[in-house]
Amino acid sequence: MRTVSFQGTQLSPSERRSIELRRQVQASFINPVLQAQVDQTFELLDQRKEQGAKPEKIWFHDYSTKGTPFLGDVFGY
After folding, report:
1. Cα–Cα distance for residue pair 23/13, rounded to 1 Å
2. Among 9, 21, 26, 40, which residue has the least CB neighbours within 10 Å?
């Protein structure tokens, strides 16, 4: 088994520019209104957790069956 160490590895100036540009572009895509809504939602969820409220049950199990389905029912036999 080989051990690979990147200790002392440095980025080239073009790689640093590319990473910095990517960070700037990513930051500009975040809509401030959307970010505020997301932050507000997380704060509300944290408050509900602290109060001990159970999360809302969005998904529920409607129907359960076991066994092999009879294909004749599909075709009207």
Report:
1. 15
2. 9
> Residue 73's closest CA among 41, 65, 25, 7?
65
Length of the chain: 77
Distance CA 14, CA 21 (A): 10
CB-based burial, 2-36: b 16+ in 10 Å, e otherwise: eeeeeeeeeeeeeeeeeeeeeeeeeeeeeeeeeee
47: amino acid identity, one letter: Q
Tens of pLDDT, residue by residue over 1-33, are: 677 666 666 778 888 888 888 888 777 777 788
CB 11 within 8 A of CB 19: yes
Name the one residue in this structure whose structure tokens are 């080239």.
12
pLDDT above 70 covers what percent of the chain?
90
